[in-house]
Structure formats: structure tokens, C-alpha cells
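Quick entry, no commentary yet.
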Amino acid sequence: MSHPESDTRPVTEQLGMIHRFVKGSKPDTLLLLHGTGGDEDDLLALGRDLDPDANLLSPRGQVLENGMPRFFRRLALGVFDLEDLAARTHELARFMDDAVSAYTLEPSRITAVGYSNGANIAASLLLLHPGALASAALLHAMVPFEPAKLPELEGTAVLLTAGRRDQMVPADQAKRLAELLEESGADVTLEWQPGGHELTQTEFEAVKNWLESH
């Protein structure tokens, strides 16, 4: 992907995470969370296409799996290290708090756009830090964990996109995550795509339309 060129901060390790920040012309911010093997540049072009005027905040996952960045450890395919997931989720929440101060962001105008592993930690962020996000687009996410107590997510809009032939995220996982978020009070939209785990143009259009409507 090409990278937005104007107002792009160089890669920095400030605020505790390697990241890029691209200043927009309006107060909305997209928190871009890449999938396994991505980095802080991976979703910048997607974010700019989704909202040409928003701030873009794109951190790099700090866990390496066979040299590929991730946001938290997993023990096997689809089996998460729940202790590390919780610790990394709290770490991401602290990073967001620091970014709000450093870049003068409006915390009530932050929307996460996460893909795969990035979508999973965004879902964990909703469950553990329900006030951290105004809304979230979770692309090919699964249930990060089953909370003992549901958070209060009234007023939080969430889009889930899922592939009917996704071998990484079984359909029942997407449905269960939607149920958990709905039971927590979130305004949930579940969009099914005919393909697998890859992102498609149809999916991009669904996310763009959802962002515009919210």
C-alpha cells in the first residue's frame, strides 16, 4: 500500500509503542490495528481511503511470532495467551491515553479499525476498557475471551465483518462476538462476506458506509 505523505510523523517509539501519527483536518481519529505480520504502515492507506479527513493513529504490535509483529501472544492457531492478551490490552489503553495528550485528540471521537489480530485486541479493548473507544470496526475478529462480567457499552457502535468461508475465524466465533457485544449494550452490525479471511473491496465499502453513517 502507498502511505499518506502529508503531515506524517516519522516512526517513533514515544508513548511506549512504535507508531505513526498522521494529522487530519477534523477531530475524528481512526486507531488502525494491523493483522499478524503487519506494522504501523500497513493500514495507513486504508485508513486514509476510509476517511480522508480523520487523524490516523497506527501502532505496531510489540509481540513477535516467527519474526511477525502481533499485538499479543497466541499458544496455537485460535488459542490465545489470555494473560498476555490482558496485559497487552491494558498497554494499548495506556498508549491511547498518552496519544490523546500528546496529539491533542478527542477521546470521544476515536474509532478503532482492526483487522484479524488487530481486530481481536480491539475487541478485547472494548471488553476491558469500554470507555476507550467511541466505536469500532472489527474485520475478521473472533472472541478474544469470555468476560466474567459484561462491560457497559451503551452508545458504542460496532461493525463486525466476517467471511462465510473464513478458515481462520469460524462463523460461530463471529456470531458469538456479536452476541457478547450486543448483550453489553453495543449497537452491533454484523456484515457477512462470501469469501475467506482476506479483505475485499465489498468489505471496504461496507466499512466506509458504516463509518459515514456513524
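second:
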Amino acid sequence: MTYDLYIGDRAFSSWSLRGWLMMESFNLPHRIHMVGLYSGTMTDDLAPLHPARLVPVMQRPDGVIVGETLAMAETLAEENPKAQMWPTDPDARATARWLCAEMAAGFSELREACPMQLLYVIQGFQANAAVRADLNRIETLWAHAAKFKTDGKWLFGQYSLADVFFAPVCARMIGYGLPVRASTKAYALQTLRDPAFVKWRTKGLQVHYEPVPDDHGLPTQEWPI
């Protein structure tokens, strides 16, 4: 069973990163199709997948199209139970679903002020009160998740879809030098050092942009990984 996954530019498309990590991190067979977010071909690229209009979107082997990352996550977990994409404990699993749903629907201030970019670390970025509030909420949720952790180093112990959904947030925390707790930064760096994330970013760096999308015009330094 091989899935077809349609994604946008790796260095900037946070939702595409989530879709890809679902498959790559849990060893689900897949083929990648690139969609032109910045080349202007997105509408045409997604036309065969109507009514999908955003990335990522996947096509199952039977031809059924599934958009939106939460729907993709549930579909993949249902069709691949041995992959254990959600925590096995029922209480932890319910909480992980809660965190993923809040991530998918919330944190608009953080998203708008800090679009994901995997090129470098931006220096001198000043997080406003609304961004800090989003960061505080994320840290509250992560601390709540830790209550269900029995072993392992991820949000719920073993790597799960919750870690997938928050991976772009980790990139924002490090990429913008955001003010977070030391334990939060350590988890973010752990995420960025994970082999699947490194593989994604390495491929993203093979594409060069001039100008760079969402450039803040601030000094930069090298990515810490």
C-alpha cells in the first residue's frame, strides 16, 4: 500500500512537513509530488485532486483523496495500526488528539508573526505579547502531556502524531530564537535533530530563493544542527 503525498516547498511549508513526517517517521510507503507554492502553479498542480486546494494532500492507493492533516493522520493511523501512530494508552491517546486538534486550529499569532523557515536562525526578533501568549499555551499543553509519559523522550514518551504536529512549532522556536523555557528549547532541538527532520530540511536547502519568502530583514546566523 503506497500513498501519494502532495507537498509544498520544504523550507517553508509547515503543513507539508507534518504530512510528510506522518509517513516518513512511521515508515509508511509513499511517493512525493511537489506542488508549486511559490512558482504560481499550485492551482494547476492540485487540479487532478479536486476539491483539494491546500497542501499537504494525499491520495490513497484506491484513489480516494484525503486533505487536511488531521483527517490524514486519523486515516493513516486507522489503516496502519501496527505503526502505533497514536499513544497506546487510551488517556494519553485522547490527550494527544486534543493537542493535535488545538495545534491545527490555534496559535494564529505565532503562525502569522513567525512563518516557518528552515534556512537559518533570525537574530533580534522581538516576540510581542500575543506571540508570547501562544508560546505559554504550548508550554502548558506540553507539560500536561508529560503527565502521561511513562518512558521515552517525546511528548507522550514514544514518538507519536503529537510530535509530528508540533514539529513546525519547534522550528519556529529555534528559527526565531523565541523566549521559551530551557526544557522547551531542549525538546525543540531534539525534534530538529531527529533524522527524519534533518532529511526534510536537507532536501529543502537544495532549492534557492531570491528573494526569500517572508524575509524579516534581520541579521541571521547558521542553523544550530
